[in-house]
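Protocol step 4 of 6: record predicted structures for both targets in the notebook before any analysis. Target 1:
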Amino acid sequence: MTWQRPIACWMTDMDGVLVHENDALPGAADFIAALEHYERPYLVLTNNSIFTARDLCARLLRSGIVVPEERIWTSALATAEFLADQAEGSTVYVIGETGLTSAIHDKGFVLNDIDPDYVVLGETRTYSFEAITKAIRFISAGARFIATNPDSTGPSPEGAIPATGAVAALISTATGRQPYFIGKPNPLMMRTALNRIAAHSETTVMIGDRMDTDIVSGLEAGLRTILVLSGSTREDEVTLYPYRPSRILPSVAEITDLVGRYCPEEAEEISAD
């Protein structure tokens, strides 16, 4: 398969593309190094709202992948950006970890556990029944409901654990109110990422390991997409979806060569074959 348009910018998911748990996946360090070497604008995206960009930068570095802090875009940062655009001056009740609370605080919001304008639900490894009860009461009283991402489960060394989407469903059942999800597959997260690096959808590629989040969000934002088979989605599962990625490759290792070969200054067809 050939692409006739140049690739000026890159977006990539983190877990399942660059790392698995705390281990770098084959070719990940070389791919990021190539982006830096050729000075290509890029962002590493994650629906994980637990950690700050600085935390994730350190985590990747321990895996041998050097990604500057400013090249990481989380659902927490996208949520804070959305609130700053939509609800400047509002008060917010947050269920989440430092990645979310610091992102919202840095945008000038006041965190309020008495009568907030918004309830923002993020991911945490220690969901508190008391905090969830407060959220239900605030939403029932009129607070608007936002969640960082719709993932129902998350990974842990012991196996799957409940994540933001599962807790959001609990709150929705109790209140009758559905949250507005900011993270993937909402193309809003892709749009905020594009704006952050002044990228254009026509010349940007999204790399991901999940059809139901990475690929669909890239597709709906107008990006070309690459599904890598190093994470969640298996190749035989692709046909179950009504949409397809632009390419399917075994891992990010097969993409590294494209960074240098298919540069934005060139418009000729370049094949990955």
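Target 2:
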Amino acid sequence: MVATFPPPYTASSALVDRLRSEGQAVAAAADVLAMAPGLDALAGTWDDLPPDAFLRDGGSYRRRRHSCFLLEDDVVRQAPHRAHWQSLDYNALHGGMERMFAPMVDVVVQAPAWSSLLRALGERFTAVRAAPRWYVEAHQFRIDTSDGIGRPTPEGAHRDGVDFVAVLLVARVGIKGGETRVFEAGGPAGQRFTLDAPWSALLLDDTRMIHESTPIQPQSDAGHRDTLVLTYRAGAFQGDE
């Protein structure tokens, strides 16, 4: 038996204060769904993610879609489709190359719940550190155990090179592992826990925290872990400076 640790949930009213003081907070599923009613109806779109063709470790365990958005004056606009790019400073495995993933489908990005989610998270992040406009990248991930093991963060413990990150668990099916680990970038403090409730979310100040998720393994038949990762960056999308 491997011990698992429950998420240290923060009350909805205290999320901003927790982010300010600790650099991270975990939102319960009910609180996330209250921010964006109807969000859970979009979970089925994770069944139609194309394979990630850019995995440098030779694996075939990851599927994803990616789209970009602008959030300004409480208005969400989808940006023209673009490649995802990260510096080698933040992603030693996949940094330094343009990765053009399939875009998210209209049923997701045109859903009222989608805009509500981006605005609600943006409001909380702005309360921690204001920006006139947020450049938001959205990633739908499915990590499966078709290779026997799946790696949610093959690059290891990392920062994303943005201001804030939200990692939402969408589903866990037939797996073990997938523990979330969060560390101070400039200190020894850290936490470990397993997100297991669909639509619970880890919120991070990426300028202060390092994070990773441990590999997953099948419990019996092949399983998978679905997540939605949203990054918020002030000034520009990565690679546009």
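Step 5 preliminary note on target 2. The mean pLDDT is 93. The longest strand covers residues 62-72.
Proceed to step 6 after PI sign-off.
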